[in-house]
C-alpha cells in the first residue's frame, strides 16, 4: 500500500518534471462546533471481522483528531487544473479488511483503473450506489481475485456492502489528479501545481463542500485552510 | 422554460403597451401558471424478434397504464408511488432488475419485454398480458426516452448459459456447498426462508427496506422476480438484480457450478414438485456432504462462516 503510494507520488513527479517552477498548496482541515458522537459498531454477527478489532470500531463518517482536525476530507482542484483526461496508468486500490473499507474515502481520476480486493475471511458484496455513472453490485467471496472497474464520469459515489450494513465508504471520481485526502491532524498537500489560478474544493461526506481560490505564481507553497461546521446529529 | 415563458410574456406586454415604464410592474405580477414541462418523446425503437416498437406509439398507453406508478417523467414518482413497496422503477437512471446482461449494463429489449409480459413477483408490477405484442414493444421503446444512456450505450452482452446437466444428488450436494461457501444464507437464510442474519437490514438503492427472496414459500406455479425456469434462476444470480442488494456472482461461480447451485436452490422450494425435490426424496431428504474430487489449493473458510444449522452437516 505504502510502496504503491510512494510509486504513485514518484510517477506524478516524473510526469510533471517539465513544470520546473511548480508550486504547491498545503493546509489543514478543521471543524467548529460539536460533531455527533460516532456509535460503536456491533460486528457480533460477523465473528471473523469482530476479532480483528481489539475494541469495537466506530463509523468513519466523521473522523476527528487533536485540535479540532478533520480527516477524510477530499481536497481537490475543481477549476484551473487542466489535467482532465491525463489518466494515471496505476490503479487505485480499495480493500475490505475487518469489515471496513480501506481507505474509507478513495479519490480517483475518471477512467482510472480501480482495483477492489477482499482481505477478509467472509464474503462481501461491493455495491457502489452510482447515479451518474452506472450502478453495479458484485459478490466477492474470500480468496477471489480483485475486481477491476473504472468510472467514466465525475461523481461522489457512496459504497456499501449489503451483507454488512455498517460498511460504508466513498469513491470520489474527479477530473483531475490534483487531490488529497486530509490525514490525521487534518493535513493535506497538493503538490506540482504550475503557475495559475485555481479553485480548490474541500468535500466532506456529512459536512458538505467548501471552496477557496488560490493563485500560484511560481515555485511557492501557499497555505489554504478549510473549516467545516460540525453537525450535532 | 420558466424564464423563457416570462420573457415571452414581457415581450407580449411590451408590444401591447406603449407606456414603457408601467410594463415591468405588470409583467412581474403575472403568476407562473404551469411550471412542469411536458415530456418530449424522442423517437426511439425497440426490436423484439420481428416486431419493431416505436416510442411515439406508446404515449397514450404509458399515460394510461404506467404513469400512475412510474410517473409522467419516468422517475418512479407517480401518484401511487408513495403507497408502494418496493418502489416503482426509476427509468431516468436506467438501472433494471431483470437482465440477461452483466451487472451495471443496460438490458436487452427482450429483457424489458419479458419483464412486461411476466410482471415482477412480490412487487406491484403486474403481468401486462392484456397488451398485444406491438403495444409491449412500443412501451419498451417508450421507457428509453427517460435516460440518455440509451443514446450513448449499447445493451450488455447477454451472459452465456451452458446446457443444463442432469439433476443428480452430486449436483445438489455441490450446490449446497456453494450456497454455504458463497454465503447466500447471510440474506436468504440457511433454509432459504429469507431470514438470514443480514436480512432485516437490507435496503435497495433508494434506501427503502427490501426482503430477500423466500424460497420456502414457493408453490408449483410460483415465480421468481425475473422468471420461472431453471435458466431464469441461473441468470438471476449470475447477473444480479441491479438496484437491490442481490449482487452478481458471474465473476465467482464457474458456469457448470452455477447449475449445481440452481439444483440446490430448487430443493429449498419444499412445497414445489420438481426433478430436484424428487431426487431429494429418493434420498429421504438427506443431502450428503459434498466431496470435491479435484480440490483447489486450500483456502478454507473459518468455522464461523458455516451457516448455522444449514451448513455442511
The global form of chain B is elongated
Helix and strand element order of chain B: HHEEHHHHHHHHH
Range of helix content of chain B: 25-40%
Q: What's the number of domains of chain B?
A: 3
Work out the oligomeric state of the chains in this entry.
heterodimer
Q: Could you say how many structural domains of chain A there are in total?
A: 1
CATH level-two architecture of the largest domain in chain B: Orthogonal Bundle
Spatial strand arrangement across the major sheet of chain A: 7-13-12-9-10
Share in β-strands of chain B:
under 5%
Q: Strand pairing plus helix content of chain A: what structural class?
A: mainly beta
Topology:
The complex is a heterodimer of chains A (233) and B (313).
Chain A lengths: L1 H14 L7 E10 L14 H4 L13 E2 L3 E2 L3 E6 L12 E6 L2 E3 L2 E5 L4 E5 L5 E5 L9 E3 L6 E3 L5 E6 L7 E7 L4 E3 L5 E7 L2 E9 L3 E9 L4 E3 L2 E4 L4
Parallel strand pairs in A: 1-18, 1-19, 5-8, 7-13
Antiparallel strand pairs in A: 1-15, 2-3, 4-14, 4-16, 5-6, 8-11, 9-10, 9-12, 12-13, 16-17
Chain B lengths: L1 H15 L3 H10 L15 E4 L2 E4 L4 H12 L38 H10 L14 H10 L6 H4 L16 H13 L3 H4 L41 H10 L15 H14 L6 H8 L31
Antiparallel strand pairs in B: 1-2
Helix pairs in contact in B: 1-2, 4-5, 7-10, 9-10
Amino acid at each position: 500500500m505504502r510502496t504503491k503510494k510512494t510509486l504513485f507520488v514518484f510517477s506524478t513527479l516524473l510526469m510533471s518534471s517539465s513544470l520546473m517552477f511548480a508550486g504547491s498548496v498545503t493546509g489543514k482541515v478543521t471543524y467548529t462546533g460539536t460533531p455527533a458522537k460516532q456509535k460503536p459498531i456491533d460486528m457480533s454477527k460477523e465473528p471473523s471481522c469482530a476479532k480483528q478489532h481489539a475494541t469495537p470500531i466506530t463509523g468513519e463518517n466523521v473522523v476527528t483528531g487533536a485540535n479540532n482536525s478533520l480527516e477524510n476530507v477530499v481536497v481537490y482542484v475543481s477549476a484551473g487544473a487542466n489535467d482532465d483526461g491525463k489518466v494515471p496508468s496505476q490503479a487505485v486500490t480499495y480493500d475490505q479488511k475487518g469489515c471496513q473499507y480501506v481507505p474509507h474515502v478513495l479519490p480517483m481520476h475518471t477512467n482510472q483503473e480501480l482495483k477492489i480486493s477482499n482481505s477478509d475471511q467472509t464474503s462481501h458484496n461491493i455495491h457502489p450506489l452510482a447515479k451518474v455513472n452506472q450502478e453495479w453490485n458484485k459478490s466477492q467471496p474470500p480468496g477471489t481475485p480483485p475486481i477491476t472497474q473504472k468510472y467514466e464520469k465525475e461523481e461522489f459515489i457512496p459504497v456499501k456492502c449489503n451483507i454488512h450494513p455498517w460498511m460504508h465508504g466513498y469513491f470520489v471520481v474527479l477530473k483531475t489528479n490534483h487531490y488529497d485526502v486530509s490525514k490525521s491532524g487534518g493535513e493535506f498537500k497538493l503538490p506540482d501545481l504550475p503557475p495559475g489560478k485555481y479553485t480548490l474544493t474541500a468535500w466532506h461526506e456529512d459536512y458538505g463542500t467548501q471552496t477557496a481560490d488560490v493563485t500560484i505564481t511560481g515555485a511557492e507553497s501557499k497555505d489554504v485552510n478549510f473549516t467545516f461546521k460540525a453537525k450535532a446529529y | 422554460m420558466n424564464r423563457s415563458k416570462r420573457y415571452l410574456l414581457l415581450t407580449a406586454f411590451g408590444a401591447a403597451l406603449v407606456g414603457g415604464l408601467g410594463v415591468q410592474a405588470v409583467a412581474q405580477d403575472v403568476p407562473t401558471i404551469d411550471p412542469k414541462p411536458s415530456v418530449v418523446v424522442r423517437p426511439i425503437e425497440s426490436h423484439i424478434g420481428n416486431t419493431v416498437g416505436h416510442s411515439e406509439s406508446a404515449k397514450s398507453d404509458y399515460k394510461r397504464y404506467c404513469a400512475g406508478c412510474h410517473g409522467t417523467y419516468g422517475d418512479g414518482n407517480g401518484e401511487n408511488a408513495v403507497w408502494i413497496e418496493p418502489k416503482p422503477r426509476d427509468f431516468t437512471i436506467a438501472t433494471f432488475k431483470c437482465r440477461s446482461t452483466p451487472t451495471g449494463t443496460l438490458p436487452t429489449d427482450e429483457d424489458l419485454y419479458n419483464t412486461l409480459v411476466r410482471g415482477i413477483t412480490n412487487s406491484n408490477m403486474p403481468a401486462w398480458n392484456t397488451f398485444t405484442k406491438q403495444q409491449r414493444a412500443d412501451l419498451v421503446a417508450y421507457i428509453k426516452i427517460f435516460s440518455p444512456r440509451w443514446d450513448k450505450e449499447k445493451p450488455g452482452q447477454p451472459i452465456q448459459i451452458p446446457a443444463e446437466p442432469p439433476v443428480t444428488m452430486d449436483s445438489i450436494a455441490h450446490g449446497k456447498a456453494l450456497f454455504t461457501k458463497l454465503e447466500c444464507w447471510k440474506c436468504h437464510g440457511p433454509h432459504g426462508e429469507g431470514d438470514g442474519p443480514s436480512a432485516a437490514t437490507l435496503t435497495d438503492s433508494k434506501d427503502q427496506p427490501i426482503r430477500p427472496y423466500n424460497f420456502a414459500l414457493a408453490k408449483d406455479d410460483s415465480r421468481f422476480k425475473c422468471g420461472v425456469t431453471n435458466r431464469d434462476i441461473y441468470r438471476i444470480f449470475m447477473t444480479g438484480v441491479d438496484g437491490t442488494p442481490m449482487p452478481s456472482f458471474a465473476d465467482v461461480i464457474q458456469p457448470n457450478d452455477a447449475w449445481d447451485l440452481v439444483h440446490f436452490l430448487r430443493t429449498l422450494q419444499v412445497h414445489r414438485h420438481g426433478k430436484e425435490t424428487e431426487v431429494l426424496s429418493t434420498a429421504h431428504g438427506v443431502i450428503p456432504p459434498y466431496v470435491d474430487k479435484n480440490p483447489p489449493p486450500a483456502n478454507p473458510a473459518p468455522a464461523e462462516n458455516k451457516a448455522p444449522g444449514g451448513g455442511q452437516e
